[in-house]
Design brief:
The structure is a single chain. By secondary structure, this protein is an alpha/beta fold. It has one domain (about 5-185): Rossmann fold (3-Layer(aba) Sandwich). The chain is built from five helices and seven strands; from the N terminus they run αβαβαββαβαββ. It has helices at about 5-20, 35-45, 55-70, 115-125, 145-155; strands spanning about 25, 50, 75-80, 95-100, 130-140, 165-170, 180-185. Strands 3-2-1-4-5-7-6 form a seven-stranded mixed sheet, with helices on both faces. β1 (about 25), α2 and β2 form a beta-alpha-beta unit. α4 (about 115-125) packs parallel to α5 (about 145-155). The longest helix is centred in the middle third of the chain and has 14 residues, at about 115-125. It starts with 6 loop residues before the first helix and ends with a strand.
């Protein structure tokens, strides 16, 4: 077993330290439901998860996973793009988790886009409670992925350090452009 976390493992480790029973979290890209289930477990029975996806297949996959894990009552599935977060989620958000790119096992031509992802990230950061965190798993190896990565890294590089701490975590010696993690924590001192 490796002692170095892969980007998704690192994101989950960071969010496990950030979220608690009763918190509200967002899965900005529900996909096949694994991150939604992870977040639903962290927020507990008194917490709430909002899971967004534009693809019906993703929402169905997520609903199935939640049902199997008996976590459906903690999650609201939203058939809308993550750029519409503000219509659903208020302030005091504990975490927002993004797993960008395309739906594994789905139509690879349907991908997350830099413009809508940036809007969603800005909304999430505005609504994070002090000590809350946004994590973004960025896949740069597909068409449009590098542009999305560049857009997000450029945005994050200029966030006010008195309000946010930003981490970019990636594997350097891996082939096929492995994903990286962008983690942004809202400081508790603001």
């Amino acid at each position: 077993m490796s002692t170095i976390f892969r980007p998704l493992e690192m994101a989950r480790s960071l969010l496990s330290a950030c979220l608690a029973e009763g918190d509200t979290a967002v899965d900005a890209t529900a996909g096949n439901g694994r991150d939604t289930v992870f977040l639903a477990r962290l927020v507990g029975a008194s917490g709430k998860v909002w899971a967004f996806d534009i693809q019906q297949q993703a929402l169905a996959n997520t609903a199935r996973m939640l049902e199997l894990e008996k976590l459906s009552n903690r999650v609201t599935l939203v058939g809308s793009g993550h750029e519409n977060l503000a219509h659903y989620v208020g302030d005091n958000l504990g975490a927002a988790m993004f797993n960008l790119g395309y739906l594994p096992g789905g139509d690879h031509s349907i991908i997350t886009r830099p413009s809508t992802t940036l809007i969603a990230l800005e909304i999430a950061l505005k609504n994070l409670r002090p000590g809350g965190m946004a994590t973004l798993i960025i896949y740069s190896g597909h068409t449009g992925g590098k542009e999305e990565e560049d857009t997000l890294l450029n945005y994050a590089a200029y966030l006010d350090q008195s309000k946010f701490t930003v981490l970019h975590y990636r594997m350097f010696n891996q082939v096929n452009e492995p994903p990286s993690l962008l983690a942004i924590e809202k400081l508790a001192t603001i």
